[in-house]
């Protein structure tokens, strides 16, 4: 058993010190420590005594899955040792430990026990944590005790990463219904929360600043430090932190530290703040600071990001988010940068929906479903939302600004209109805007954009909130900062936070436990289901279908449910099906809606196209201490060119859905030798689907700004897919950006990439030699070689119009190398650079 201590929150290996190593031998023992007079209630920590020939330690372990796992592993190891006779264990078995012993006496039994048995508050003073604390509570904080260090990260044990939902006695761990009891207690505590909490107001400072790729050139004090009283919490968001290609493609940037240092120096001077969390996605960054005295009440800190750029992956647009618990309130802060351009308001709406649905925060209990953004008490949303002022000419807008007639101007604000139409930010609130638009200015001045484009001024930078007990004290821009073509915006909010009265909490907790003990454990749980058969009709590639299964607890006791895997299967459902939540707890008389979400993506489309897989599955719903229920999933999949091989598509002269299903599936399953049989009809040089998309882009989008960088609309991509699969209509619908994204989706879904997996290693080896690269391509199967040459010729044509479309060799090589040269295994950073080098040879006219 390894005993670790640390003087700071464990962030890296350097933060942890190996304090002692205890051999699990015949002299080893671990027993629970309890007094006969001690009341065995659910809610107490577990204390154990660990002894061997020269040690006697007491450890206090907090309740949770980490403790259970730890104790079970120790007991398992001990049991294995006890099976052996002492003479069977060689004396040299633990000699290797001698080199890890301290040269001096080391920590005494009493002093080490004192460290391990400290309360959270006393641990905060000593700066040491027990092994169980380190394993179970990984959240961390960095403290700027001395700002003169300017950027030095001084992590400190200021954040208490435990919740008020505390523990259990060790004797409860062995009970088979323990998980059920724990969930019931949690559920009942939530229902009775008003009995033990009170509301206390805290001040939150929220700031957003699109810095246009610039380094910090001026103090941020006018923006961050202007409130008269120091805020309790700072949440500071940046966009376009770094606009370089290196930041976009490799996500590394020195500007992260530069702006972090600038923020640290700009915080209110009358208080000391602890740094809690940083998260960055390319140029979107969010920083979270808390006053030192509040840090111990911050817990359950998690951070996630999601890209909403093209293919839903590129991080030039998207969001980062941090969720945390402050006292007993769950809070989520989101910093987003949505799609640009006046006409793209629907794309911005889609970005918002994607961010809300795709950001998932894991919970401390792995048995609980991840939390979405909207499942928090308080949601604070800031960023460059990019909604513009429409239907007015630039001079009209400037005249209204000069008159400070912001009320009239806001009638033409896209965000206000979209919120009013309930298309976006449903339930969110934005304060009254009493400041002039924050975009777009000439960098380094307060003058409106005087470039050739002459952008219409707009309130791109916004702060909104959702939740109760929230009052906005101010909402303003900061005109004195001139680093960027945007002005920073801030909001100071007073938010009512749920604070626990410890004494009332204890009484509520004990009452729940007493009532729970009265329940009849012999009662068998049962549920009723809203349905046992679910049919999904006409399933399409990347088009989600959702059915709802309602589970109602009609039994006499609470129940724990879980979807379990069937015999000889590794998962409880097929890969094209997602079940949410897949497990949970139901009190008596309660019900829960289970989402059965069917979604076919590139990893599952090929087998469904070929007929190797069908939309068929049987789900097994298991009740703890109860019976199993069986649920049937059936449906039909509409074959798509997405997920079909180049070889097969070259033999399809008609749209794929016009082919008889049996004929199509036979063709897909044919080997390359059978397909190339002379009796077989001569194939097309390239799939007609690729030709349609490339031809459309060549004729309509050669001068399109941000082509292959600006995402399309999902609804339009769906119509393009249907057009390619059915042949209707004759021409591709949707915007140029949607067609461009459809092309990339098509290439990404190919079961065998354009450059075959078998040639991938050769590509890496020849990446520095143009003639060798050409030889690799010449060795590809004919249809793959044709497609590669056709696509690279198209890309060279696009580069002729780089003045208009803002594309260059670097951008195109980075985007298309990821789709044309895919590895069958995980691609390393060095490999990505080599694939980039390989493709670059074919984008330069001399090497074509």
UniProtKB/TrEMBL annotation:
Q: InterPro entries per the record?
A: Endo/exonu/phosph_ase_sf, Ig-like_fold, INPP5B_PH_dom, IP5, IPPc, OCRL-1_2_ASH, OCRL1/INPP5B_INPP5c, Rho_GTPase_activation_prot
Q: What class of enzyme is it?
A: hydrolase
Output the GO biological process annotations, alphabetical, semicolon-separated.
phosphatidylinositol dephosphorylation; signal transduction
Give the Basic and acidic residues compositional bias ranges: 144-157
Give me the ranges of the annotated region Disordered: 111-157
Q: Could you name the domain of life of the organism this protein comes from? A: Eukaryota
| Name listed for the protein in its UniProt record | phosphoinositide 5-phosphatase
Places the protein is found: Cytoplasmic vesicle, Phagosome membrane; Early endosome membrane
Matching Gene3D superfamilies, A to Z?
Answer: 2.30.29.110, Endonuclease/exonuclease/phosphatase (3.60.10.10), Immunoglobulins (2.60.40.10), Rho GTPase activation protein (1.10.555.10)
Q: What SMART domains would the database entry show? A: IPPc, RhoGAP
Cite the GO molecular-function annotations of the record.
Answer: inositol-1,4,5-trisphosphate 5-phosphatase activity; phosphatidylinositol-4,5-bisphosphate 5-phosphatase activity
- What family is reported? Belongs to the inositol 1,4,5-trisphosphate 5-phosphatase type II family.
User: Listed GO cellular component terms?
Assistant: cytosol; early endosome membrane; phagocytic vesicle membrane
Enzyme Commission code: 3.1.3.36
Return the Polar residues bias intervals.
Answer: 111-128
Q: Which PROSITE patterns does the record match to this protein?
A: RHOGAP
Main subcellular location of this protein, as a coarse class: membrane
Entry keyword set: Cytoplasmic vesicle, Endosome, Hydrolase, Lipid metabolism, Membrane
Which ranges carry the Rho-GAP domain?
673-848
């Amino acid at each position: 058993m390894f005993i670790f201590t640390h003087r700071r929150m464990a962030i890296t290996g350097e933060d942890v010190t190996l304090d002692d190593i205890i051999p699990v031998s015949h002299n080893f023992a671990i027993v629970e420590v309890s007094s006969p007079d001690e009341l065995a209630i659910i809610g107490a920590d577990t204390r154990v005594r660990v002894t061997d020939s020269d040690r006697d330690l007491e450890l206090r372990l907090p309740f949770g899955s980490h403790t259970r796992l730890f104790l079970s592993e120790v007991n398992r190891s001990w049991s294995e040792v006890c099976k052996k006779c002492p003479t069977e264990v060689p004396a040299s078995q633990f000699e290797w430990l001698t080199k890890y012993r301290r040269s001096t006496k080391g920590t005494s039994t009493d002093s080490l026990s004192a460290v391990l048995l400290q309360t959270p508050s006393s641990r905060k003073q000593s700066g040491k944590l027990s092994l169980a604390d380190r394993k179970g509570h990984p959240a961390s904080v960095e403290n700027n005790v001395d700002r003169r260090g300017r950027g030095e990260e001084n992590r400190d044990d200021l954040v208490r990463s435990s919740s008020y939902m505390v523990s259990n006695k060790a004797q409860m761990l062995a009970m088979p219904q323990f998980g059920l009891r724990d969930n019931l207690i949690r559920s009942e505590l939530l229902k009775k929360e008003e009995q033990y909490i009170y509301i206390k107001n805290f001040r939150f400072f929220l700031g957003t600043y699109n810095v246009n790729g610039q380094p910090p050139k001026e103090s941020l004090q006018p923006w961050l430090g202007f409130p008269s009283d120091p805020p309790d919490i700072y949440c500071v968001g940046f966009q376009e932190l770094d606009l370089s290609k290196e930041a976009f493609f490799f996500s590394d940037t020195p500007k992260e530290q530069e702006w972090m240092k600038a923020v640290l120096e700009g915080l209110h001077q009358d208080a000391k703040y602890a740094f809690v969390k940083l998260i960055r996605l390319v140029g979107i960054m969010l920083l979270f600071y808390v006053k030192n005295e509040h840090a111990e009440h911050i817990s359950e800190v998690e951070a996630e990001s999601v890209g909403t750029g093209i293919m839903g992956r590129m991080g030039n647009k998207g969001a980062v988010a941090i969720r945390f618990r402050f006292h007993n309130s769950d809070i989520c802060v989101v910093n987003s940068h949505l799609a640009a351009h006046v006409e793209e308001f629907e794309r911005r709406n889609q970005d918002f929906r994607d961010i809300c649905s795709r950001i998932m925060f894991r919970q401390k209990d792995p048995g609980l479903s991840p939390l979405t953004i909207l499942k928090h008490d308080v949601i604070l949303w800031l960023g460059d939302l990019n909604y513009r002022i429409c239907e007015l000419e630039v001079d009209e807008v400037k005249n209204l600004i000069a008159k400070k007639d912001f009320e009239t101007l806001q009638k033409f604000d896209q965000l206000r209109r979209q919120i009013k139409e309930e298309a976006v930010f449903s339930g969110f609130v934005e304060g009254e805007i009493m400041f002039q638009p924050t975009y777009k200015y000439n960098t380094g001045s307060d003058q409106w954009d005087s470039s050739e484009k002459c952008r219409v001024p707009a309130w791109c930078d916004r702060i909104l909130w959702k939740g109760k007990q929230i009052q906005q004290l101010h909402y303003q821009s900061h005109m004195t900062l001139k680093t960027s073509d945007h002005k920073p915006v801030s909001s100071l909010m007073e938010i009512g936070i749920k604070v626990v009265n410890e004494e009332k909490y204890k009484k509520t907790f004990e009452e729940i436990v007493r009532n729970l003990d009265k329940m009849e454990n012999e009662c068998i749980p049962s549920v009723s289901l809203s349905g046992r058969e679910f049919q999904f009709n006409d399933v399409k590639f990347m088009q989600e279908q959702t059915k709802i299964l309602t589970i109602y607890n009609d039994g006499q006791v609470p129940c724990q449910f879980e979807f379990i895997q069937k015999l000889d299967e590794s998962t409880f459902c097929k890969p094209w099906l997602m079940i949410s939540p897949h497990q949970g707890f139901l009190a008596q008389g309660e019900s829960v809606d289970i989402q059965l979400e069917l979604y076919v993506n590139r990893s599952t489309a090929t087998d469904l196209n070929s007929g190797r897989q069908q939309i068929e599955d049987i789900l097994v719903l298991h009740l703890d201490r109860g019976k199993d229920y069986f649920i049937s999933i059936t449906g039909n999949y509409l074959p798509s060119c997405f997920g079909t091989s180049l070889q097969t598509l070259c033999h399809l002269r008609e749209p794929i859905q016009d082919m008889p299903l049996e004929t199509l599936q036979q063709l897909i399953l044919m080997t390359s030798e059978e397909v190339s049989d002379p009796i077989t009809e001569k194939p097309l040089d390239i799939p007609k689907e690729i030709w349609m998309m490339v031809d459309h882009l060549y004729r309509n989008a050669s001068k399109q700004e941000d082509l292959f960088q600006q995402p399309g609309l999902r609804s339009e991509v769906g119509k393009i897919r249907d057009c390619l699969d059915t042949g209707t209509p004759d021409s591709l619908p949707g915007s140029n950006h949607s067609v461009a994204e459809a092309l990339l989706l098509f290439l990404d879904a190919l079961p065998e990439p354009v450059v075959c997996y078998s040639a991938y290693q050769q590509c890496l080896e020849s990446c520095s030699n143009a003639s060798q690269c050409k030889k690799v391509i010449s060795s590809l199967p004919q249809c793959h070689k044709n497609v590669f040459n056709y696509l690279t010729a198209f890309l060279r044509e696009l580069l002729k119009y780089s003045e208009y479309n803002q594309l260059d060799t670097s951008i195109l090589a980075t985007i298309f190398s990821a789709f044309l040269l895919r590895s069958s295994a995980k691609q390393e950073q060095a490999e990505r650079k080599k694939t980039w080098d390989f493709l670059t040879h074919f984008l330069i006219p001399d090497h074509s």
